[in-house]
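step: validate -> pass
step: tokenize input -> pass
step: predict -> running
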Amino acid sequence: MDSTINSTKVLDLFKDEETALVTCEAALAWLTHYRDGHSGMFPTAIFNALIRLRPSCSPEVIVHRIVDGEVFFWLTLRAVDDADPFNGLWHYTGTVDRYGDYLIGGIRRVLDRELGGRILESCRHVASIYPVRSRRSDILSVLFLCAVEGEPSSTEEGRWFSADEAMRLVPLGKGGGIIPSHLAGLSLCLRFLGRPHASAYLAPSPVGLRVDGDEGFSQEIVLVEEIDADAVGGFTDRMAQDQ
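step: predict -> pass
step: emit ->
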């Protein structure tokens, strides 16, 4: 069956609100039926489209170890497709929460699929961050600092980074940079461990942190635990100035 989307035919379905609502309800019924028959999973193309439309939640499994007092993080080189804005960048493991995960299921899935079936030795919630206007989609990232039994393994290229080396990675840098929000996440983990490391690419902001990179890149990272009255009051004005 030809799966090519004809934009004219699609627009014809939404000529009036009533027709649009009926079409959306039918699509929702199909998605629910598919999800229930496939262990809560959607086809990749549909899943990617859904997370672009609505904010999502992602448990991030940040694997670390401490050797002779020095902190190391396990990072992998993202290898998906060229359409992904973060392809080819270093990142820590994580997944978008799916139906019935409640974060815990997502952590288990990461262990099984991205870390070689490793067993957790420890798992601690560090922080929750919300990157503003992410290039991929709006995702609330819940950071879990973890240690695993044995050596992690991944289908993607992976290795251990010392804290100092990780904090020198360039957000969106070509030839081995890091996903911007992940640099912020690693910094928060180091702060949690009582071993803060400075980064030339991170600075405080009214909503939490600001990540700067090459070629004028800058992104705000909302720290959920630090939202207060001042942050709420000034958020809309600051975002308007960034338009």
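step: describe -> The helical segments are 7-12, 17-37, 44-53, 104-113, 163-166, 180-192, 229-242.
step: cleanup -> pass
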